[in-house]
Amino acid sequence: MAALLYAGAAMAGILSRRHLDQKARLARGDWPRLLWMAAFGSVLH
């Protein structure tokens, strides 16, 4: 079950990836996506 959780998080991360030339930082606009991924993962778990 944990493997599916990590696979889903990896897939979501790949699909929502932004191309940045600098180090990625957590911005205010990233919080909804981060919370959505955490909530979805907790439902699966």
Kindly list the characteristics that best describe this protein.
single chain, 45 residues, mainly alpha, 0% strand, globular
Tell me about this structure.
By secondary structure, the chain is mainly alpha-helical. It has one domain (2-18, 28-44). 62% of the residues lie in helices and 0% in strands. It contains two helices and no strands. It has helices at residues 2-15, 31-44. Helix 1 runs antiparallel to helix 2 (31-44). The longest helix has 14 residues, at 2-15. The mean pLDDT is 78.
Strand content: under 5%
Largest sheet: none
DSSP summary, beta strand count = 0
Give the number of helices: 2
SSE order, as H and E? HH
Number of domains: 1
Approximately how much helix is present in the residues? 55-70%
Mean pLDDT across the residues is 78
**Classification by helices and strands:** mainly alpha
Distance between the termini: 7 Å
Unreliable runs: none
Give the C-alpha Rg: 12 Å
Shape: globular
